[in-house]
Amino acid sequence: MDDLKQHDIPADVNTNEWALRVTGAVEQPLRLTRRDLTSLSLEEFTGEFACAEGWVADELSWRGVRVGTILDHASPTPEGDFALVRAMDGDYACSFPRERLAESILALELDGDALSPEHGGPVRLVPTATDRNCWESIKWVAEIELTESRPTAADTAKELALSRIE
Prior knowledge:
Blueprint: E1 20-24, E2 30-32, H1 34-38, E3 43-50, E4 56-66, H2 67-74, E5 82-87, E6 93-97, H3 98-102, E7 105-110, E8 113-114, E9 124-126, E10 141-147, H4 158-163
Parallel strand pairs: 1-10
Antiparallel strand pairs: 1-2, 3-4, 4-7, 5-6, 5-10, 7-8, 7-9
């Protein structure tokens, strides 16, 4: 776990009051606590984490809930083909095609330990696709909003993430 770079936790991230909301183009909007998530089937994903800053953390083992499982509980409408995943800090969000997001994991653990706030806990989005980008791994996930229209480039955290590279 020490290989994964830590950043300061934004002041408006309050992990004590955390809950995940699933909103938008769904028949059953959800509000899930960490306890709700741990009651679902948990899966593991192991892989490297390569950052645009140039560093790589090898063989990180993430454990959590497949996003598709959560979306199934929310019953997406047929039109909800896209998603915005928002962080608790209010600034960071990333857009995904729904099918790609469904394969990702909402990680609750990293290398066998509860995911700390420094590493994005209580829940961090971990894309599992081979073409994943580091800015898609969203810390402090607070909301998944399904949308009927493709999000624009302004809806992604790519520019924000790349602006943080020193």
